[in-house]
Amino acid sequence: MRPRSTACVRARALSPDIRADIPGVRYIPTQTEFVQERDPMEIGVGLPTNLRNTSKALLLEWAQRAEAAGFASLCMGERLTYAGYDWVLALTAAAAVTSRIRLLSNVVILPIHPVGVVAKQSLSLDDFSGGRFSLGVGLGTPLDDYDVAPSPRAGRGKRFEASMRTLRKLFEGESLIEGTRAIGPPPTRRGGPELLLGSNGPKALRRVGEFADGVVTWSFGADPREARGMFDIAEDAWREHGRPGSPRLVCGCYYSVGTRAKDDLEAYFRDYYPGVLPGQVDDLLAAVRTVTPDAIRDVVRGFEDIGCDEFIFVPIQPDIGHLDGLAEIVC
Q1: Fewest C-beta atoms under 10 Å: which of 63, 78, 152, 312?
Q2: pLDDT per position as a tens digit, 185-221
Q3: What count of other Cβ atoms lies within 10 Å of the Cβ of residue 127?
Q4: Residue range 110-138: average pLDDT?
Q5: Could you tell me which of 46, 146, 161, 79 has the C-alpha nearest to residue 115?
Q6: For the chain, how far is it from start to end, CA to CA, in angstroms?
Q7: What's the DSSP call for residue 8?
């Protein structure tokens, strides 16, 4: 979705070999580069599938109505030790009842999975959706998920980097074992699905320069200054690795709408976060401001101004009214 407010238009240098890979962009050639005239910031919305009391019917209706409203993407994170659906199931179901809206895993906890299996899932979902899938991966915050997977907590950073390298090769259609066929189906686009690095930490964000196509960050307070600091780290790492163009810059936050917006947000936080960030629930609640139409609109304006490519609003209630309420505010 592209909101009605004025967008921040940024010019970026892009190498000719990638200029045709990004839809909705007009390129003006110069002597040495192509300048990209950016579209307004896009707005995505989370699926209500990491929540208690979600359902098949709600997932399918949410996906269809989000597309009809004009949202740019549907996202789904991964959490093993909580209610809700698996990311592959949820995004595949959404793909089956839509035709245009993009799909994003935000994020898959990569070190707990065999990398070949993630490649198979990603290539399958990208092919099934007609090339609409972006794979967001990260280390994950709830370490309990490592224990139940099971996967060792120790060494997860090194495993993450090794898996990112391997994913790139598999997305190129390479076989890692001589004489063995490559993991399929073949990628729908050169280099496979868009690969986004999900993180807020400086060390992790720097990995984008070597491994990913962009970053997907998070701000409880939907603070443009906080996000711009994270984007700066990603862009610096991108340049240090001599990569053309710029990384895709994505951020997100929770939102709540309606007469019970604050109460619904608090109920979710007090249920979910004690096991994820113990002792921090009150501080997290105090940080979140996206519970009124004016605050949500202000977030959109603020993130446009810092050059964010896409902002994602993540629901805290499995209620279609929360989707409709958001669409009324940002459309």
Answers
A1: 152
A2: 999 999 999 999 999 999 999 999 999 999 999 999 9
A3: 16
A4: 98
A5: 161
A6: 7
A7: P
- For residue 29, is pLDDT > 50? no
Q: How far apart are CA 288 and CA 205, in angstroms?
A: 23
Torsion angle of the four alpha carbons 124, 125, 130, 136, in this order, in degrees rounded to the nearest 10: -120
Q: Is the pLDDT at 87 greater than 60, yes or no?
A: yes
Q: Is 207 helix (H, G, I), strand (E, B) or coil?
A: coil
pLDDT band at 11 (very low <50, low <70, confident <90, very high): very low
The DSSP-derived string for 24-80 is T-EEEE-SS-EEEEPPPPEEEEE-S-SSTT--HHHHHHHHHHHHHHT-SEEEE---S
What does 28-41 look like in DSSP terms, one character per residue?
EE-SS-EEEEPPPP
Q: Residue 29: exposed, middle, or buried by beta-carbon count in 10 A (0-12, 13-18, 19+)?
A: exposed
Counting other chains too, the contacts that 166-170 makes at CB distance below 8 Å and 24 or more residues apart are 166/115, 166/116, 166/119, 167/115, 167/118, 167/119, 167/122, 167/135, 167/137, 167/192, 167/195, 168/192, 168/195, 168/211, 170/115, 170/116, 170/119, 170/123
Better-predicted residue by pLDDT, 29 or 294: 294
Tokens 């710029």 appear where?
246
Sequence letter at residue 113? H
Task: For each of the domains in the chain, give its residue range(s) and CATH number, in order of start.
Answer: 41-330 (3.20.20.30)
Helix or strand or coil: residue 248? strand
- pLDDT for the residue numbered 37: 57
Entry pTM: 0.88
